[in-house]
Amino acid sequence: MSDYGFRISRNGVDVKTGDDKDMVVNSKYANLKGTLSGSGSVEVARDSADHTVTIAHNLGYIPIVQAFWNDYDEFHFLNTEYYPLPFYRLGVGEEINFRVKADATNIYLIFKINDFDV
Amino acid sequence: MGDYGAAVSQKGYDVKNCADRFLVYSSAFSNLKINSVSSVSTTKPTTGNTNTITITHNLGYLAPVMVVYNGSTTLGVNSSFLFTDSIGSVLSIKIYTNTIEIIVGDDFDGSASAAGDTVYFTVYSFLDSFDTIAASSINTGTSSGSSSTDYGIRVSKAGFDVKSCDDKDCAFSSSFFSNIVHMKGVDDTGEVTHDLGYIPAFLGFYKVSGNSFLSLEDYSGYFMTFAVNTSTITSNLDTGDEFYYVILKQKLV
Predict the structure, then answer these.
(1) How far off is chain B from A117, nearest CA to CA, in Å?
(2) N or C: which end of chain A has fewer CB within 10 A?
């Protein structure tokens, strides 16, 4: 690669000689760029069906999406805690399967609970 | 910390006094840097078999990754799934010091994909290690106001014209929020204190005792069972297990 661009080092690291990984910013490497964030709620029945929240992003290409969920009703977990998607748990009498999907227009948060006792 | 350095805020936020999470970059904090993006594929195997994709990054240390399943011959490639197949099964990945493996079993993607299908993935390999960066905050306040004026900074990736390239082809841009690292490291206690005062986004991986690789599962039936609240992240660790984490200055709620 040609020797141009710019780099900014962390405090205590020499910007001219430090490792790339110790730079705060280095134009040689891209960053993930966030364009949309938000939150909402959905009621998930324990019926083995996918319950999907659709969020439009309209980027025109398929983006990376990171999502987290929490148990608002505290059915299993404290509602002060959040868990990253995907979330999978096979417990006594139930299977929890939460995941995130994206296409060129929308983000889909998909929640499914399979209650073996129903 | 000395009062020098450089910082760029997101459009609409005053770089002098906005909260850290509204910065695009700051010399006080590190950003997650993408080392490589790999588009890879294999075939879904027949019953009793597995196929393994190996991506070589040659970093020489364990580093975070994001793996996206892009679809298959039968499913199509119009949608993507982060860390799962289309039916929600968590991907079997192994992150080594020089390679990343994606293991595709005969049950991959359930009936959504057929044996013999080509299955496609995109792998984002980050440059940053899990070497400890302790938590630090300069400004935990809220926004200083907003502006719709079209100014700021953008830096293009090599080979792209910074004046005309798409936003996605910029190394960074003040039009977007970025992954500023609040802290990172390795934990073996099951609890990491971040003290951000809000619930942050993070990346986390298990390193099970005796394994030389990171994964999304602890091999005792738990997948990605990391819980975050306004002050800590807890992980489901057995004795000898480790939690590799990168906590970002990104407020979820």
Answers:
(1) 21
(2) N
